[in-house]
Amino acid sequence: MKRCLVVIPVYNESVALPRLINLLNELESEDPRKSIEFLFINDGSEDGSEEILLKSGLNYVSLANNLGIGAAVQCGYMFAERNGYDYLVQLDGDGQHPPGELEKLLVAAEESEEDLIIGSRFISNSGYRPGIFRKLGMIYSTWIVRRVTGETIRDTTSGFRLTKKRLIRFFASEYPHREAGVLSLLMAAKAGFRFREIPIRMNKRRTGKSSIRIDRALFYPFKTIINTLAAILGK
Amino acid sequence: MTLVLRLIGIVGALLIMMFVLLLIRWKKLTDEYATLWLATSILFLLGAILSKEVFLIYQYIKGASGSGPGILLFLAVMVIIFLMIMLSSKVSIHQEQIKRLTQTAGLIDNKVRGMDETGADKKNSNGSDRDR
After folding, report:
1. Helix (H) or strand (E) holding A4
2. Residue-averaged pLDDT of chain A
3. How far is the C-alpha of A191 from the C-alpha of A167, rounded, in Å?
4. What burial class does residue A114 get, using C-beta atoms within 10 Å of its C-beta: 0-12 exposed, 13-18 middle, 19+ buried?
5. Span A33-44, pLDDT tens digits
6. Does any CB of chain B come closer than 8 Å to the CB of residue A7?
7. Helix A165-173 vs helix A180-190: angle between axes, to the nearest 10 degrees?
8. Which of B98, B104, B109 faces A62 most closely, judged by CB atoms?
9. Quick one: how many helices (H) and strands (E) in chain A?
10. Chain A closest CA to B29's CA: distance in Å?
């Protein structure tokens, strides 16, 4: 039986957390094989998210400082590698990724040879409508991934993805700090890993603010070029 | 160079040197940076004290190139840029180390919490066995 670790990075999500915890508890009780385990990564939250996690009884790692989503997710990879998990699924702490869609990723992982399965919002009509800046960023990052890897990934920034054991080991030692969605694909492709997309449904963000704002959107192309170069030139 | 300018240069260099020494005393500057900035401040001080010799070098460069101040300024900017790149590289390395340390500390904390819970569970079960 394959063991799967679901990693949920959390930063100041005290409003969205209780609902997500309830959903995960339901999912856990519905999993008779107990093959799925959850791990929250509290990325230095200052709004009481850690207290909520402590009371929930769910497993979590608490980082002393806010390191950013890339480093928080990498901590999940380190945990998965040290504890011998077969799969790692990344799930957003803001409730945008419906935990019910997990099964689709697991089935796709069993059926395919690829090391990374990406839950895509753009293969079928998932009802997801990104804002203009996010959309431009996505078009640009899809183009850059195609130029570098030769593969067309429509949802390069999707955080809802499943990673298999070999790639877990790789990401535990090397994972980008920022723009992790795109750069992790480039790094994995450069190291010879393969990936595929499957359609998923995604919820609208209920609380908090998106990290994509006009200032970030303006610098996104330049930062991605620099980071892409770093990923290509890196060891 | 006038005497006033020379004095200003010496006092400025001494102030920089004192500030560096204070930072070393307060343990806010590690050896490698301390060496770098002490060497820089000594260079400033020597430059201010031996202003005649510096002027001679300037004259030599001016004679060779015809544009002494321009070349001196260019060299100074190059040194500053080099120092800044070195410091950025150091900061990046430290940032990576802090990230690794924070992640490892988080993982250890998680493990200890798990062990505490297991220990508490064992204690509870032993207690209930004894009660029976």
Report:
1. strand A4-10
2. 83
3. 10
4. middle
5. 668 899 999 999
6. no
7. 110
8. B109
9. 8, 7
10. 23
- For A62, nearest residue in chain B (alpha carbons): B106
pLDDT tens digits, residue range A184-197?
A: 888 888 888 998 99
Provide mean pLDDT across the span A144-160. Answer: 83
3-state class (DSSP) for residue A212: coil
Specify whether the CB–CB gap between A42 and A10 falls below 8 A: yes
Are the Cβ atoms of A71 and B102 closer than 8 angstroms? Answer: yes
Strand partners, A162: A89, A117
Beta strands in chain A (DSSP E): 4-10, 36-43, 60-63, 87-90, 116-120, 161-164, 195-199
- For residues A175 and A182, give the distance between their C-alpha atoms in angstroms, rounded to a whole number: 11
A66 touches chain B (CB under 8 A): no
Two tokens, residue B104:
């490892």
> How close does chain A come to B14, measured CA to CA in Å?
39
* A166 vs A148, more confident: A166
Average pLDDT over residues B85-108: 91
Residue recorded with tokens 């590698």: A81
Gap from B118 CA to chain A (nearest CA, Å)? 13
Single-letter amino acid, residue A32: P
Q: Taking CB atoms and an 8 Å cutoff, what residues of chain A touch B104?
A: 78
Q: How does pLDDT run across A101-118, given as a tens digit for each residue?
A: 888 899 999 999 999 999
Residue A177 · residue A225 · CB < 8 Å: no
- For residue A59, the chain B residues in CB contact (below 8 A) are 110, 114
CA distance A67 to chain B (A): 7
Q: Please give the residue that has the higher pLDDT: either A92 or A168.
A: A168
